[in-house]
Input
Amino acid sequence: MTVEQRNEEFQFKNSRKIAYVSFPETKEMNIEKYFENLNYEPSKFNIEDFFEVKYLNEYQINELSNLIYNIGFRKNINAGRSANCYFPNNAVLFLNEDNSLLGYIEICFDCHRYRSSNVNFTLGEDCSQKIDMLKSLFSDAQITYISSLKPFK
Output
């Protein structure tokens, strides 16, 4: 897909801002519970709740949309990666102009699994390298906390 075609897809067309964030797990809260709580009280969303927030520029948004829509398996493959850790510490946030949350994709870079707020917010077709590529995009954007296996300081 071209940049123009990707920009017309729901998650990019309707978002005014996109951010990469980190959210270290604590005894009181983790990112999964945070987003689940928002299902009941969406008004509780506050961008300041995150440890790191990096708003994407146009180039970074194009990199993300290219990863989502142009990277994936071209044919059926019977292989996969599985782990049971799922301790997501990062997310891609799709926001309106007032920083209200439109949707999210939470990510565990350790086990390569993710969950999104709904079907309109996706990482696209699976690929064995996609999560590692996304991890590089987070790192390039200066997100430093990208693993629950890394000690939080």
Residues 75-80 have pLDDT under 50 and may be disordered.
